[in-house]
Amino acid sequence: MGAALEGKVALVTGGSRGIGAATARALADEGAAVAISYVSSAKRAEDVVAGLKRTGRQASAHRADQADPHQVTALVDAVAAQYGRLDVLVNNAAHYATGPVDDPKGDLAAVDRQLAANVGGVGAAVRAAARHLGEGGRIITVGSHLSSRAGFPGVADYAATKAAVIGYSKGAARDLAPRGITVNVVQSGSVATDMNPSDGPFADVQRAANAMGRFGRPEEIAAGIVFLASPAASFITGTVLTIDGGYLA
Fold it and tell me: Which of 35, 72, 143, 168 is least surrounded, with the fewest CB atoms within 10 Å of its CB?
């Protein structure tokens, strides 16, 4: 365990599994108290919290739908009230809806929910967190390599949401820099999670698309997030850290 974030409070949205759970553990390993949100995986969320508490860290799980800005705002306010402060916000919760743009049977409701969660939810969380963060505060949003290069058919709507949060984060970085708050994006590549298993039907195509020829591990993305949350990243803001195994190489 390190101590770079000792005394800090972090909120990781979508922290019950995958990159979110790995990030919660990594932040706790550096000394932070960690709150996570979930929308449907209550048991998994509680398991993550129990694991964090076993390490001696404060931790809690909160239900909030990332697609509902009112719930997102209430989540941020509740975490800040519970712990008395908020130092790190990790926007990880997201939806993934695929399908070609010319599909007459496309699930437009899913596309709308994806936009609401991936863009609207991020904006709501950033605005709410900005009321609580002080000097040295950190906002990190988990993006996707697909925002820079789609590479596959059927991902236009998802890629658009991830491109949008890059623009939003750059703008927010300008707004919040005078207060000593940094805002960055960690752009992940193909990572082995429940949503995108390394033995899934499109796994071989994804592996072949990046230079390292393998899926990333959630812990490898979490490492980049923790770096941007740490004091070592105090002069980094409005930027995109890409961790994609060489997909964009």
Answer: 168
38 is catalytic: no
109: which 2 tokens? 């409701």
12-38 confidence digits (pLDDT tens): 999 999 999 999 999 999 999 999 999
For residues 169 and 174, what is the distance between their CA atoms, to the nearest angstrom? 9
- Among 38, 83, 96, 158, which one carries the catalytic annotation? 158
209-243: b or e for each residue (b if 16 or more CB lie within 10 Å)? bbeeeebbebebbbebbbbbbbeebeeebbbbbbb
pLDDT tens per residue across span 98-132: 999 999 999 999 999 999 999 999 999 999 999 99
Backbone angles phi, psi at 229, to 5 degrees: -80, -15
Helix (H) / strand (E) containing 220: helix 218-229
Q: Residue written as tokens 């800040």? A: 80
